[in-house]
Specification:
A hairpin with a 4-residue loop joins β11 and β12. By secondary structure, this protein is α/β, with parallel strands linked by helices. A 5-stranded parallel beta sheet has the order 2-1-3-6-7, sandwiched between helices. It has a 5-stranded antiparallel beta sheet with strand order 12-11-10-14-13. Strands 15-16-17 form a 3-stranded antiparallel beta sheet, with no helix packed on it. It has 8 helices and 17 strands. The protein folds into 2 domains: 134 residues, 3-Layer(aba) Sandwich (Rossmann fold), CATH 3.40.50; 108 residues, LytTr DNA-binding domain (OB fold (Dihydrolipoamide Acetyltransferase, E2P)). The longest helix is centred in the middle third of the chain and has 15 residues.
Length: 250
């Protein structure tokens, strides 16, 4: 296996040293070419070394790590974000199917992320994910931001405003779009409940996650049910009825 050349972008020396030590011990196919502490130095290091992989902290002294990606919009180098667990950007990262590691670093997560890079090394798919991520970052409208949907054929990128509702199917999720398309996505409904914007998407049933913008009518009952703009009827569970009505009334 050819070695992966890496650049670490991290302003905390201890954190950078921990990552270097873990890579040396558990990811011997990774060679750290440089460590950069700022956005400016990171860009210089990437230009100089042309790494296969960049471990990128989000918060840097001279700005966001996102600026590093913006400097290489058409380069398919692989990026793994390194961030604190509660960072606001985690949802934005997950929506685009980008990789990230949480501090304190977990050995198994690190090995998994590096193995994934080895498999997808400089793939066009990575470039597309970064492109969507940057466009979402610039997009003010939440519903116009895209989400990466992992299907059997590969990743598809769909605007959130085009999603009418999602339906659980075991460990998979069916997406129903306003174009009348239906697609089976290789992740459970709970995953999408977590990353789709809660201002617009509401869980109404164990099986359904609904875009509130497409609800035509609510019909009362023990739990009741929804009539969507396209005429589809979706059941509301008794357990989720109160939370739904509170959201719907707003």
């Amino acid at each position: 296996m050819n070695p992966l050349k890496a650049v670490i972008v991290e302003d905390e020396k201890r954190s950078a040293d921990v990552l270097k030590d873990l890579l040396a011990k558990y990811c011997t196919n990774v060679q750290v070419a440089d460590v950069a502490e700022t956005v400016e130095k990171a860009i210089e290091a990437i230009v100089k070394h042309e790494p296969d992989i960049v471990f990128l902290d989000i918060e840097l002294p001279d700005g966001s790590g996102f600026k590093v990606i913006e400097a290489f919009p058409h380069d398919s180098l692989s990026v793994i974000f390194v961030t604190a667990y509660e960072h606001y950007a985690i949802k934005a990262i997950k929506i685009c199917a980008l990789d990230y590691l949480l501090k304190p670093l977990d050995m198994d997560d690190l090995i998994s992320a590096v193995n994934k890079v080895s498999t997808e090394k400089r793939s066009p798919d990575m470039n597309k994910r970064k492109e969507v991520f940057l466009n979402n970052h610039r997009q003010k409208s939440i519903l116009e931001r895209k989400i990466a949907l992992p299907t059997i054929e590969g990743l598809l990128f769909v605007c959130q405003e085009d999603i009418v509702y999602c339906e659980a199917e075991s460990n998979y999720t069916n997406f129903f779009l306003k174009t009348k398309e239906k697609m089976l996505v290789c992740k459970p409904l709970n995953y999408f409940e977590e990353i789709l914007d809660p201002e617009y998407f509401c869980r109404t049933h164990q099986s359904f996650l609904v875009n509130l913008s497409y609800i035509k009518k609510y019909v009362k009952g023990r739990g009741g049910y929804l009539i969507m703009n396209d005429g589809t009827k979706l059941e509301i569970s008794v357990r989720m009825k109160s939370a739904f009505l509170e959201r719907f009334s707003k």
